[in-house]
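#lab-general

N.A. 3:47 PM
ok so I finally got the sequence cleaned up, no stray characters, all 154 residues accounted for. can someone with queue access submit it? mine expired

B.Y. 3:52 PM
send it over

N.A. 3:53 PM
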Amino acid sequence: MQFADENNFAKEFFERTIYNLNLYNTQNATCNNEFKYEVTQLINSLLGLIVFVKEEGISFDSIQLSDIKSDADMVWNYCHREGGRLEEKNFKNFLRHIRNAIAHKRLSIKSSNTNEISSIVFKDKDQRNHFEVELSVDELKNLVLKLSQCIEQN
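B.Y. 4:20 PM
back already:
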């Protein structure tokens, strides 16, 4: 596998990640949802998109936090920034907490009574701060979709 231009590594990585996710979704749809590990594919895509997005400084101003999850459905307590002020509850900080949860293995899986994964709980906490959100598989898909759409527009 070769990248056309090292200077465009992140852009090509985004394109390949989105391509792989779309291919997975298309194949899964044509095979009556028989492909396994949908949530694993979503988390892999999400992690790749989040890490490179942060490093590339891509703006997500077009995405509102309410597009992903209701504020009432999140625990976002005592998240302080430098100087002791509370951090703003916005999509940029939400994404940072999701990235931290994945990077530090602070995920827990919830399953339905059929043993299918129904949601994932993302936690980001230290001595002073606590963030926790549970995303259903559909909300996770929506998050990856919103990120990929925003990246494609940049």
